[in-house]
Amino acid sequence: MIEREFYFPMLAHAPMEPMGATIEPTEDGGVIMHDGAQFPTANNMVLGQVLDLPPEKIRINTLYAGGFFGRRATPSSDYIVEAALAFAMTDRSRPVKLVWSREDDITGGYYRPAMAHRVRVGLDPDGGILGWDHRVAGQSIFKGTAFEQMIVRDGVDGSSVEGIADGAYTIPSLHLGLTDARPATTVNWWRSVGHSHTGYVMESMMDLLARAAGADPVEYRLRYLDEAEPDGARMAATLRLAAEKAGWGAELPAGRGRGVAAHKSFGSYCAEVCEVSIDGDGVVRIEKVTAAIDCGIAVTPDVVRAQIEGGIGYGIGHVMRDQITLENGAVHERNFPDYEPLRMRDIAAIDVHIVPSTEAPTGVGEPGTPPAGPALANAIAAAGGPRVTRLPMTLSGVAFA
pTM for the whole thing? Predict the structure, then answer.
């Protein structure tokens, strides 16, 4: 039997551009809001309530913005309410611009909830999976929001277990349990939502199982992809493409290792191979990440590649060293020195390949994130480093170049 516990801390979205919006009056007594909005309709409703205006008097000018990964789509529309209240306090004859400081953004936001997993997998004498018992504990994102009726079924928040309950693998005797906690922290969807932690656990466990079976990690995963079914066939093709382009199986110098991870999310299939080196002092350098994505018809291939590159950077950057912690009920981290995002130096190269497809287009903004962390974790273990089950990695003794 293979048994592991995993812990994931709260995470901030930490976009390069902090929260902000501008409200401008119009000649007919209405307003225009200039905002990199993810929920323009919600903005319209909030402005109508705060400013006592009908919908036809409110225009939302949706702008390109500096990445938000879910932060500009909170159920409470928090920063929109703040901007609207500031405008309401004036004579409404001049524009009002709200810009949060970085400290406002890190300490006053909505967070990816802390989550814990306990997994026990029974193996037969040949290393095959006999049964998989998976328990998840954390805070529900959707309970108590307007989306509860769509996401929560029989008391289970689907976002807490997505990527396990609906993964591409055909796993025999899978048992999945969820326990919700209700701490006072405010939580919100974060890039790839529940997949951000379930993908890490599933792909770390598949790697552990492959090694326990004495099997190649790619081949072991393929055993549990039913290629007679669309899910299995598309994931298998994506996994094979990533492995081929990464040179999987080719000999590596001493101190180097490759790790693989594959995950389905948002209707797309993404596989990634991470290659790392570890020097004599135990310092890890991420040499390359090779990714393959099946997102149906790639309408704009350059955008697809860019989104997968960004998803990889976002996923790896946060598992490396980031966490949100509380001291006396307040967030301790305040700015990038103590909540450090990915740096240009952190990943030497990223190579993205698109699986040719005639299927309907699916998501690309988030599927690159879930496999990134476990691919890195599996590479570190393959290179002789520790098996990281408690994040961030720096708290588990991993040092990065």
Answer: 0.96
